[in-house]
Design goal:
The complex is a heterodimer of chains A (116) and B (106). Chain A is an all-beta fold and 116 residues long. Chain A has no helices and eleven strands. In chain A, the strands form two sheets. In chain A, strands 2, 4, 5, 6, 9, 10 and 11 form a seven-stranded mixed beta sheet that branches. In chain A, strands 1-3-8-7 form a four-stranded antiparallel beta sheet, with no helix packed on it. Chain B contains no helices and eleven strands. In chain B, strands 2, 4, 5, 6, 9, 10 and 11 form a seven-stranded mixed beta sheet that branches. A four-stranded antiparallel beta sheet of chain B has the order 1-3-8-7, with no helix packed on it. Chain B is mostly beta strands. The chains are: A mainly beta (116), B mainly beta (106). Chains A and B meet through β5 and β10 of A and β5 and β10 of B.
Chain lengths: 116, 106
């Protein structure tokens, strides 16, 4: 059974950084792109970018290029997203999602709250 | 970027009714995907490549469209269909989602 297990909720101060994880199981991690999606409270979905675990290749939404860095640890089948210089605008639920054609499996989401 | 405009924003329907929601793209796209999301849950794949139902999706759902206009239709709405439906494209960067259509049951 394919599962994407994300790390727990985060409460961080403005200006800080945070690293969210997404541990994959039930499939060959390096065969699928891993994407990250932001959902602000009560709002729609925004694509942040993707990483191809096989070779570490990445693609970013220009809007998030200076905000997010995507990495993987193939030895543990885990994808990471680091968000930096956090502001209240970054408070949201962040999802990882596997894709070949469409997002066929999603993590449960990680709630990030940026507050002093 | 390609903007996806979904209408209506809120759709109110009675059980058994046929409903259609649309997704219009600001430029032509090759295909459209759709996701269903219920409160407190992650989105679920619903329709892929315009007209193909994802695994487990009831046959009362269908998708169609081409170019800049796509739609999701439910032939006979059931209570379990209450959710927000999002369209998504990746014909060009960046990948974008629509704002969603919230289906409410009367």
């Amino acid at each position: 059974e394919v599962q994407l297990q994300q790390s727990g909720p985060e409460l961080v101060k403005p200006g800080a950084s945070v690293k969210i994880s997404c541990k994959a199981s039930g499939y060959t991690f390096t065969d699928y792109n891993m994407h990250w999606v932001k959902q602000s409270h009560g709002k729609s979905l925004e694509w942040i970018g993707y990483i191809y675990p096989y070779n570490g290749g990445t693609g970013y939404n220009q809007k998030f290029k200076s905000k997010a860095t995507l990495t993987v640890d193939n030895s543990s089948s885990t994808a990471y997203m680091e968000l930096r210089s956090l502001t209240s605008e970054d408070s949201a639920v962040y999802y990882c999602a596997r894709t070949k054609l469409l997002f066929d499996y999603w993590g449960q989401g990680t709630t990030l709250t940026v507050s002093s | 970027q390609i903007v996806l405009s979904q209408s209506p924003a809120i759709l109110s329907a009675s059980p058994g009714e046929k409903v259609t929601m649309t997704c219009r793209a600001s430029s032509s796209v090759s295909y459209m995907h759709w996701y269903q999301q219920k409160p407190g849950s992650s989105p679920k794949p619903w329709i892929y490549a315009t007209s193909n139902l994802a695994s487990g999706v009831p046959a009362r759902f269908s998708g169609s469209g081409s170019g800049t206009s796509y739609s999701l239709t439910i032939s006979r709405v059931e209570a379990e269909d209450a959710a927000t439906y999002y369209c998504q494209q990746w014909s060009s960067n960046p990948l974008t989602f629509g704002a969603g259509t919230k289906l409410e049951l009367k």
